[in-house]
Amino acid sequence: MSSNVLRKVGKLDASGETIVEQAITDVGLNTRAHDKLLRISRTIADLAGVDDIHADHLCEAVHYRRLDRQL
To answer: No. of H helices and E strands in the chain?
Structure first.
């Protein structure tokens, strides 16, 4: 999925944007990692059977990213 398509299907509300901004600051994510975070969040939302990415999907994706960095 390209970045343009990802931004269309991965629209975030204000709380989602805040979570992503905090993840960029706290975890030190770059633009590429930002897109990966959105892709993972989109997958989690799909598995949950919902159309929109919610804050809990983003938090779960950030958690996986932090685990990945610890390994």
So the answer is: 4, 0
